[in-house]
Description:
alpha/beta, 380 residues, seven-stranded mixed beta sheet, 13 helices, single chain
Amino acid sequence: xxxAVVIIGAGLGGLTLARVLHVHGIPSVVYEAEPGPDxxxxxxQLDIHDHNGQLALAAASxxxxxxxxxxEGAEAxxxxxxxxxxxxxxxxxxxxxxxxVLRGDLRRLLLDSLPEGTVRWGRKLAGVSPLxxxxxxxxxxxxxxxxxxxxxxxxxxWSRVRPLLSDATPRYAGATxxxxxxxxxxxxxxxxxxxxxxxxxxxxxxxxxxxxxxxAGDVLHVYVELKRPAEWFAGIDFDDPAAKGLVAAEFDxxxxxxxxxxxxxxxxxVPRMVHTLPIGHRWRRVPGVTLLGDAAHLMPPSGEGAxxxxxxxxxxxxxxxxxxxxxxxALAAYEEPMFARAAQEAVDAHRMxxxxxxxxxxxxxIAMMRSVSDxxxxxx
Length: 380
C-alpha cells in the first residue's frame, strides 16, 4: 500500500507530527514496534517548556487538554549537597513556564487526538529500500510493507531510518543513569521525601549525582548518575537485589536520606546509558526522507529532548502545510532551522552533563539553575 506520509515511531515527536498534520487535513500513518499503547511504562515526568514543547502543543490545538494533565506545583526545584544541606530552593511560581507532566499522560493525550487507525502497532521496521523519485519501501518484521512518498524517521536513538541519510551512530557519553522508584514515600520514606520536596531535587557532585522527581500518587522517581566506563556497568547484575548496595557504595559518606533513595527503591535498578550523536549532526538533502527527535540529534539528557522532538514534529508539519505540492521544499525549510536549533541545544546538553558530574559540581550547576529561573541573570 502506498502512503503519502509514513512516520516510523510513535513517540512524542512522531505523534506530534501526525497530530499537526491531522489538524490541517493531511493524513499520515504511524508505524510503531511496540505491540500496543500500554505495552510498557513510558518513563517519568517531563518539563514542557514555553519556547518549544508548549509551542508544539499549541500548533497541535492541544493546549487546553495539556493543562488538564499538569502536575501542579512540580516546577519547584532544589539543589542539595551530599550532606543533605539545601544549597538552592526555587519554589514553583505558578507561571507554567516549564510545567511537569508524566510522559505517559502526554503520549496518551496525543494518541487520543488522532483518528482511529493512524497508529499501526506491532510493526517493527526491518529495513528500508529507496525506490527512486523520493519514494521508499518500508518492510516490517511481520512481513508487511508500505511505500512512502515521505518517510519520517521518528524512531529514536537507534533509528533504522537514519542510515538513509547519515552514517553517524550514537556513542557512549561516559555516564549512565540508573533509575528506580519509591512508593508511598511520605509514610514509608519521610526523610527522603522531605529532602526531595515538592518537585525536583538535584545533588550533583564530581563523578556522581542523585536526582529525584516527586510524581503524583506519593511517588519518587529517582535517577542515580555515575561517570564510569561502560565496562563498569556491564559487570553489575542489575536484576540482583545486591546491585542496590553496589551502587549505593559509590555514595559512601552521603546523607542517609539520600542513599536511601537508592537502597529503598521499590523497583529493580534499571541502567540507562547516555549515548549521543555528534554535536552539529546534519546530512545532505535526500529526496523523500527526513528525521526528527533523537533520530536526528540524540544528546545527553538536559530537559530538552522531548521538547525538541515535539517542536521538530510541529515544525515539519508546518513546512509541509506551507509547501503542499513540493515535499523537497518542505524538507529543506524544516531541516536547516532544525540543524541550527539542535546544534545549540547539543552544546548546552553536553555542558549540562559536565555541570552535573564535573569537578566544578555543584557550584556550576547552581549558577546555571539560577540563570534558568531568572533569564535576566547571567551565570557567575
